[in-house]
Write a structure and sequence with these properties.
By secondary structure, this protein is mainly alpha-helical. Helix content is about 85%, strand content about 0%.
């Protein structure tokens, strides 16, 4: 009995970790796509042509990359 309960809990934790990892991968993929568009815009019109939201996205991507390299 006790072993089954522990197995269930371990499976639940594993599933939660897998969902969290997938959500992180999905967010990174969306951010990469946004960054491609922003970098293209920078190459066309320069940094001064970015909106506040685009600058914020650029900062978030920079922060994410900085933390993922540690």
């Amino acid at each position: 009995e006790g072993g089954e309960g522990a197995g269930w809990l371990a499976r639940r934790r594993q599933a939660r970790q897998e969902r969290s990892a997938q959500e992180r991968r999905d967010k990174e993929a969306r951010l990469r796509a946004e960054m491609d568009a922003i970098l293209e815009k920078i190459s066309l019109v320069g940094m001064q042509g970015l909106t506040r939201q685009e600058r914020q996205t650029l900062q978030e991507a920079s922060d994410l990359l900085r933390h993922s390299r540690r």
